[in-house]
């Protein structure tokens, strides 16, 4: 196995914003059959260590490609962009105000245990925002110009904010 391949190449999938989850899972299972460390139990220590490294690489690749947000960040990295919460900030005041209001709603919701309807509404709102931003990213990625990729980075930063809210809501749900 060649761990210098990018994740799309490893899974023999097109470098695309939209991937078939069925095809991704199928390729993951095929790769795991080949590199699973149990298959190398009778091999040398070196072979066993390589199998563990290969399996870890396959698992990491699958994890990244499975999540649209992680996949978008990875695609930007392949394009030479470095996206991370630490370096990138969102300067869109309307978006920031929406996020502050959303976070306030989440905080209020966390203090009221009988708000299943409100929780579902917020989760739906967050899912809709992620879907909308995902469409925007896809469109910008297909255009592929420098300014388009700059805007795609901003979209990913917005998605990271929304993803944090989604995780808080998931915690409240459980």
Domains, number: 2
Mean of residue pLDDT values: 89
Q: Shape from CA axes?
A: globular
Q: State the name of the first-level CATH class of the largest domain.
A: Mainly Alpha
Note the topology.
Elements: H1 7-10, H2 21-35, H3 45-66, H4 68-78, H5 93-110, H6 116-143, H7 146-173
Helix pairs in contact: 2-3, 3-4, 4-7, 5-7, 6-7
Descriptive labels:
single chain; 174 residues; mainly alpha; Helix Hairpins; Monooxygenase
Structure description:
The chain has 174 residues and is an all-alpha fold. The chain folds into two domains: 7-66, Orthogonal Bundle (Helix Hairpins); 93-173, Up-down Bundle (Monooxygenase), CATH 1.20.1280. 72% of the residues lie in helices and 0% in strands. The radius of gyration is 20 Å and the shape is globular. The termini are far apart.
Please provide a brief summary of the model.
The chain is mainly α and 174 residues long. It contains seven helices and no strands.
């Amino acid at each position: 196995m060649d761990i210098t391949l990018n994740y799309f190449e490893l899974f023999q999938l097109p470098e695309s914003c939209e991937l078939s989850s069925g095809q991704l899972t199928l390729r993951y299972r095929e790769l795991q059959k080949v590199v699973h460390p149990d298959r190398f139990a009778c091999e040398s220590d070196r072979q066993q260590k390589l199998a563990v490294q290969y399996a870890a690489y396959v698992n990491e690749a699958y994890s990244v490609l499975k999540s649209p947000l992680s996949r978008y960040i990875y695609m930007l990295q392949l394009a030479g962009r470095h996206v991370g919460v630490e370096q990138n900030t969102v300067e869109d005041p309307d978006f920031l105000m929406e996020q502050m209001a959303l976070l306030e709603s989440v905080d209020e919701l966390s203090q009221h245990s009988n708000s299943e309807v409100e929780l579902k509404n917020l989760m739906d709102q967050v899912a809709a925002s992620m879907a909308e931003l995902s469409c925007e990213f896809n469109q910008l990625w297909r255009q592929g110009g420098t300014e388009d990729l700059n805007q795609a980075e901003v979209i990913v930063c917005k998605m990271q904010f929304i993803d944090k809210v989604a995780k808080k809501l998931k915690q409240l749900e459980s």
